[in-house]
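Hi D.,

Good news: the full-assembly prediction came through. Inputs first.
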Amino acid sequence: MPPSESQVERTGPVSLVTGSARGLGLAVAQHLAARGDRVHVVWRSDGDAASSLREAFGARAHRADLTRVDETQALVDAVLERDGGIDHVVHAVGEYVSGPLADATPDELRRMLRSNVESSFALFGAARPALRASRGAAVFFGCSGLAGFRARRETAAYAAAKSALFVLVRSWAQEEAPHGVRVNLVSPGHVPHPDAHPDTLDRARLEKIPMGRPGAPADIARAVDFLTSSAAAYTTGTDLLVTGGWML
Ligand SMILES: NC(=O)c1ccc[n+]([C@@H]2O[C@H](COP(=O)([O-])OP(=O)(O)OC[C@H]3O[C@@H](n4cnc5c(N)ncnc54)[C@H](OP(=O)(O)O)[C@@H]3O)[C@@H](O)[C@H]2O)c1
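Then the structure:
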């Protein structure tokens, strides 16, 4: 876990990265910290991952359940209190479920919408004034194949939630552009990591990836690096596919 509490002395951009106790959010947090950002991380569940995160990020590690509007607002307030502003928000939260729609329950659909859509709506709402003040950037997480509104045999409830998020992202991009705020989606393909869903290791799916390999968390971190850099100063409302060509 490279970054340390020495981040306290940093003066780089302030980046809030959610879902950062593990998986893609953790890779993004580590990457942005290595480039010099003052990275705030967020954990939800107690355990070893949360302990390591607190050790590595010190006062910039926060606990919040981001399906709760009050905890989301308190998180943003804590970041502002610590560092006085927010330049980037990267929301790597979004639960997953697979299986035919005929077997899905209303609770599963609600969980997808709460985790992927409502949490994004609450976080962007809480961070909007700070992002406008800094003329900053927000990055949300989609999934492959959103552009075509494709039917899904196994992931319809999840993809429906991500599709709703994509419409929000494009709408925020349009609405916030006059305020200097950029809003984009990054869409990973299959990115296995130690805590990822077993579907990311499904051989039948992996064999369909034109580039011949699954994604790595570092691939996603580099894409977020780009979207939160001056190289993307004129990029907003896009869905950046990091899929190795899967589902083209
Ligand atoms: N990995 C892939 O192949 C892939 C592919 C396409 C899209 N994506 C998207 O990329 C994003 C990150 O994926 P991932 O594989 O890193 O996911 P992950 O392994 O499920 O990790 C997500 C992190 O988010 C946290 N989290 C979940 N719900 C939360 C909540 N309500 N409040 C606060 N934290 C919460 C989890 O905390 P806990 O430890 O407490 O659960 C966990 O640390 C997601 O939006 C996902 O849909 C991933």
